[in-house]
Amino acid sequence: MATQKIAVYSLSGMFLVKYDNNLKNTTDDAVPNYLTSLKFKQSHFLTDVRLTLGYTAVIIAAITFYADYKLGWDKTKDATFWAVLVYFTLNGALTFWIWGMEKGNVFTGEIDAPSKGRSLLSIASSVTKHTPIYNLTVRYQDSNKQPKTLELSSPFTRWFDADGVFVAKPFQQWLASEIPLVGQVDPQKQIDGPASEPSGSVHSNNEGPDEQRLPETPKKSGSSTQTPVSARTRKGKKT
Q1: Cα separation of 113 and 143, whole Å?
Q2: CA-CA-CA-CA torsion sign (157, 159, 163, 164)
Q3: How far apart are CA 124 and CA 106, in angstroms?
């Protein structure tokens, strides 16, 4: 996956991440890329239904426009009425599907491990406007095939470095450490504590989600606490 730069900037000693949908979109794309590399089989059912509804509505609109252009309004007004009705019905169904069924879904799939059998996994993401925190809702099956739900959150600065480049390893470590099913499949990415930071990124556990402090630059004092190196005068005195 090609790295993508996201806009970041530093102002008045504070490290600020400019909120942008690119942060979420880039991270969303990394979820299926990582899981499919672990042999998870992704289901495209939700996406297929959304595309079917959208393309069907577009095709109906195109046919209606062509018929009106060729045959005229008088001959097509009855058909146009029904076409418009079907078009808005499909768009209503599409809106419901996106907000009611997909609900920010970025991955739905399963893995068939010889020792654990088939296990299902579903991940949905969300962000709050102007807050660079990545939220995940994870649904999976534990070792006893019981459904479990996890609510995870982490700042984007965990896997975006100071130059705004996405770094895959800390993101994958976070997923493997927080989602038991992923950790079982990829135990090498599990870590005891928080995932390691990408090179160049900075964060503080005591800071709010919107801003992270940079290391403070040592200040120059007007008077030095150390005795300066002396230089001898002609009379042998020190200055």
Answers
A1: 11
A2: negative
A3: 5
* Dist. CA 82–CA 125, nearest whole Å: 37
Q: Per-residue pLDDT tens for 4-14?
A: 555 554 333 33
- 30-35, long-range: CB < 8 A, 24+ apart: 30/1, 30/166, 30/168, 30/171, 31/106, 31/107, 31/123, 31/125, 31/175, 32/106, 32/107, 32/109, 33/1, 34/168, 34/171, 34/172, 34/175, 35/107, 35/109, 35/121, 35/182
Q: What is the pTM of this model?
A: 0.69
Q: Strand, coil or helix: what is 233? A: coil
Strands (E), the chain: 8-11, 14-17, 41-42, 105-113, 117-128, 131-141, 147-155, 211-213
pLDDT-based confidence at residue 112 (cuts at 50, 70, 90): confident
pLDDT class for 3, splitting at 50, 70, 90?
Answer: low
Angle at 203 between CA 153 and CA 124, to 5 degrees: 20
